[in-house]
Write a structure and sequence with these properties.
Elements lengths: L1 H17 L7 H14 L5 E2 L5 E6 L11 E9 L5 E4 L5 E4 L5 H6 L8 E6 L19 E10 L1
Antiparallel strand pairs: 1-2, 2-6, 3-4, 3-5, 3-7, 6-7
Family: Belongs to the FKBP-type PPIase family.
Keywords: Isomerase, Rotamase
Catalytic activity: [protein]-peptidylproline (omega=180) = [protein]-peptidylproline (omega=0)
Length: 150
């Protein structure tokens, strides 16, 4: 009986030590976005998924769907203002199924010629994982200009 108890305790300790701690960034990111908006005197809409978006210019051309090919000029940065990625003014072309879900959803709120911002919580970006210089759990902000729906 003593050996069984020791084996059980050892197993429980091994399992609890081997579990990777996962942080739930949903509420943390939501507070960070709200704070960023207040600090910068911005007003944004919030979708059911938790994406915040600001439409500065809605555009007048075609409106993309979740599976459209688009060309977008953008600048991506963190809430502290540090830029992590940026296109040139001609933008880049891609299919909306090939990008983070914050873009897949957010770009569809604009028409060709539209511009604005997407404030993307981690669960719609790269999640809790480090990706290409972007720390896990990061809020991503993108200034976007939808050049065309291809």
């Amino acid at each position: 009986m003593k050996k069984t108890f020791i084996a059980l305790v050892t197993c429980v300790i091994a399992l609890s030590c081997s579990k990777k701690e996962v942080t739930d960034f949903v509420s943390k990111n939501d507070e960070e976005i709200k704070s960023y908006l207040a600090d910068n005197n911005l007003t944004a809409e919030k979708s059911n998924t938790g994406l915040y978006y600001i439409i500065n210019e809605p555009g007048i051309g075609a409106q993309p769907t979740f599976s459209s090919d688009v060309t977008v000029a953008y600048k991506g940065y963190f809430t502290n203002g540090n830029v992590f990625d940026q296109s040139n003014s001609e933008g880049i072309s891609f299919n909306l199924q090939q990008v983070i879900s914050g873009w897949t959803e957010g770009i569809t709120y604009f028409k060709e010629g539209g511009s604005g911002m997407l404030l993307i919580p981690a669960h719609l970006g790269y999640g809790n994982n480090y990706y290409n210089g972007i720390p896990g759990g990061s809020v991503l902000i993108f200034e976007i200009n939808l050049i065309s729906v291809n």
